[in-house]
Amino acid sequence: MADRYRPKSAIQRAREGNPSKTVIKEGVVVPRAVLSEPNWVEVFRFSRDCAVESANVRCRDVASQEWRRVVPVLEVAAGIGEVDHTTVKDLCVCVARIDQAERDLSERGLMVTAERGTVKNGAATIAAQYRTQLSRYIRELGLSPSARTAITAPEPDDYESDVWD
After folding, report:
1. pTM listed for this prediction
2. Euclidean distance between CA atoms 15 and 35, whole angstroms
3. Rounded distance, CA 84 to CA 35, Å?
């Protein structure tokens, strides 16, 4: 089901028809860039607590693997630019935190014993919130099959020409 609040891309509007005959805006063209991988140590900082540090080491690894998996696809398919760096970085952080929450759920279970008895593991709530955010990033970056239909691949151009000329 289409998101009624999100405008359709110019190509999608032209393909589906424009019965209102309103002017179709092409949108903003972002200069393409090769994104450099963030320093994950700045995101998942060192900790003196061994348990926290081992979780942060794994988060760094998971985020780095996700970056290396997703960025090459986005550079070719979506023509991402430097302005998209933070969004892609946040996507990788979401994946790493979901992994961390799922590991906690696997180790401690869905229900944990607390001061007031048996309660739901907080990692379940955290994982659900990160999954909600991750689905938004997936939709925005065109990483799901349905989202890819709204994205048109950038035209192959010579790298000598400047977008702003």
Report:
1. 0.73
2. 31
3. 9
How far is 151 from 142, CA to CA, in rounded Å? 7
Per-residue pLDDT tens over the stretch 5-54:
566 656 556 666 777 777 766 655 566 777 899 999 999 999 999 999 99
CA distance 93 to 99: 10
CA distance 90 to 96: 10
Cα(135)–Cα(141) distance, integer angstroms: 10
Copy the structure tokens of residue 90.
Answer: 């946040």
CA 107 – CA 148 distance, rounded (Å)? 36
Residues 32 and 154: beta-carbon distance below 8 Å: yes
pLDDT tens, residue by residue, 95-148: 999 999 999 999 998 998 888 899 999 999 999 999 999 999 988 888 877 776
Cα 89 from Cα 124, distance rounded (Å): 23
Residues contacting residue 142 through CB under 8 Å, at least 6 positions apart: 74, 77, 78, 148, 150, 151
